[in-house]
């Protein structure tokens, strides 16, 4: 089984998501500071997801860098996986030590 180049990029991004718990463990030990940091980044990602079809320059750059990696539902305007990862991470750090 061979993976397409775009799928390999997605998998690398998935591995890159490990920066969230590693940052929490090694760098930002204060739980509420991590929650606020993740919340801030999550809000930015939600805005990007919302406006990526409404602002021409944002759509251009988003398309140039990410469209080849997105799933069909993400291309159709749904939230991207990155937004869900950040939202889930924010909630997880908020609820659990």
**How big a fraction of the residues is strand?**
under 5%
Q: Largest sheet, described in full?
A: none
Report Rg. 15 Å
Number of helices: 6
H-E order: HHHHHH
| Secondary-structure content class | mainly alpha
Shape: globular
Q: Unreliable segments (pLDDT under 50, ≥5 consecutive)? A: none
Q: What is the count of β-strands?
A: 0
Quote the average pLDDT.
Answer: 92
> How far apart are the first and last residues' alpha carbons, in Å?
40 Å
- The helix fraction, in percent, is over 70%
Short description:
With 97 residues, this protein is an all-alpha fold. It is built from 6 helices and no strands.
Molecular structure report:
There is one protein chain. The chain has 97 residues and is mostly helical. It has helices spanning 5-16, 19-26, 31-51, 56-66, 72-75, 81-95. The longest helix is centred in the middle third of the chain and has 21 residues, at 31-51. It is globular, with a radius of gyration of 15 Å. The mean pLDDT is 92.
Keywords:
mainly alpha; 6 helices; 0% strand
Write the layout of secondary structure elements.
Layout: H1 5-16, H2 19-26, H3 31-51, H4 56-66, H5 72-75, H6 81-95
